[in-house]
Amino acid sequence: MTRRRLPCLAALLALAAPPAMADGFGFRTPSGNIYCNGSVDGGDLSCTIVSRDTGSAPAGIACPAGNELHVDMLQTGAVRAGCGGPSGRPSAYTDVAEYGATAAFGRISCVSQRTGFECRNADGRGFLLSRAAQRIW
Fold it and tell me: In whole angstroms, what is the distance from residue 133 CA to residue 65 CA?
């Protein structure tokens, strides 16, 4: 499989960040079901999955189906996760991480695939988000 790189961080900023958000960026997967935002320096990345199958939350996370699941990651250390309220609305971000694209945000690397969106930090900690399953390691 040939992997395409996500647009460089500067391109994401130029396309997506209004002046008030000059210190951050945002993008979504092609389905609009997963969206992420982070800081320009690559220090952190936060992603949300809007719609999940019943019973698909990671072990130890109480997040009923119908509620958004949020994950937060730094360049090193454990991934944090939490449950948000129901929204049912896909992201309005216009920058898209096409399937097969890869990107690095500082020491965080991500890949967008039809089977899910996966990111890892410098410690090898990470997450996988998809409608069918969510994992944190």
Answer: 11
Model's pTM, two decimal places?
0.79
Q: Identify residue 57 by its one-letter amino acid code.
A: A
**pLDDT confidence of residue 41:** 73
- From the CB of residue 137, how many other CB atoms can be counted at a distance below 10 Å? 11
Q: Buried b / exposed e across 72-106, counting CB within 10 Å, b at 16+?
A: bbbbeeebebeeeeeeeeebebebbbebebebebb
Q: Which strands sit side by side in the sheet containing 34-39, from one edge to the other?
A: 24-28, 34-39, 44-49, 69-74, 80-83
pLDDT digits (tens, 9 = 90+) for 50-88: 988 877 788 788 888 888 999 999 999 999 999 988 766
Going by DSSP bridges, is the β-strand pair 4-5/101-105 parallel, antiparallel, or unpaired? parallel
The percent of the chain in helix, strand and coil, each rounded to the nearest 5, is 10, 40, 55
Q: Which residue has the tokens 């898209």?
A: 96
**How many whole angstroms separate alpha carbon 95 and alpha carbon 26?**
7
